[in-house]
Amino acid sequence: MTAPAFYPIGTPGQPWGAAEVAQWRASQVRHRSYHADVVGAIERLRSRFEVVEYGRLDYAPDGYPLFAIKSRDWQAGLPCMLVTGGVHGYETSGVHGALEFVERHAADYAGRANLLVAPCVSPWAYERIHRWNVDAIDPNRSFREDSPAEESAALMRLVAPMRAEVLVHIDLHETTDSDESEFRPALAARDGKPYEPGEIPDGFYLVGDSEDPQPEFQQAVIAAVEKVTHIAPADAQGEIIGSTVVAHGVINYPVKSLGLCAGITDARYRTTTEVYPDSPRATPEQCNAAQAAAVCAAIDFALARPG
């Protein structure tokens, strides 16, 4: 039997109500600036790419414009490559890896693909280095109709007109030590459930779609990233974060039924990256480079297989 983990908000065994959510929200501290770190970087890209504001989060007293970066030479008939980052705001390399891809590599695909990059889906959480939005909702379980998370709903509205054109969707994430020290205990407390300890894998891995796994695609991305950083091994049970390892560095989830970002289109090739930034074998620069390498590998694989 698993002993309940202590969490300072709520009553063990009872889901949170409005009072507990308000208490949790009041405990959150801003650690960094979305406007300085992310919007500033996007502004520097305006001379080379189209920047669109696709929504705004009004979380009084704070407001957050939501930005996406598009190919300036968008051409009808070209496949669309969708890159998303920062769905979980605390997963830093998802945000900065997406921006690094645009800065260093996006121009290589001009005239071959239409690129759409949403680098920071959850800016309130980015500033507070948290997984949830202001209402203690996980955006990456909220990509569905009538979404309770405005971050998720705004991204779905942006993508809706081009869903049929998306060939690749790569969603950039991290698995961190704080998943076990903070976020999973908080989730258990919020939902009034017992906390079940897990094991954090040391290294990069991918989450494919169990309904359409595309194993050759997943392995092409793993091979590219392995040149930048190490790949997570399976644990003693042959699993990564409780899911069976189906190939080197790859597990699968039913992304659409779970409401995950990777399921918002019918892209033939879709995957979720998971970087491990707390590894003594990885630097922040490596983590960002691994994300960018994954994006390039995903796009290159798809472009090499027309039709």
TrEMBL record:
GO molecular function term, any single one: hydrolase activity, acting on ester bonds
Coiled-coil intervals, chain numbering: none
Cofactor: Zn(2+)
InterPro entries, per database record: AstE_AspA_cat (IPR055438), Peptidase_M14 (IPR000834)
Classification via CDD domains: M14_REP34-like
Sequence ranges assigned to domain Peptidase M14 in this UniProt record: 30-307
Keywords, sorted A to Z: Carboxypeptidase, Hydrolase, Metal-binding, Protease, Zinc
Name of a matching Pfam family: AstE_AspA_cat
Biological process according to GO: proteolysis
Stored Gene3D superfamilies: Zn peptidases
RNA-binding listed as a keyword: no
Similarity comment: family membership: Belongs to the peptidase M14 family.
Name this polypeptide is given: Zinc carboxypeptidase family protein
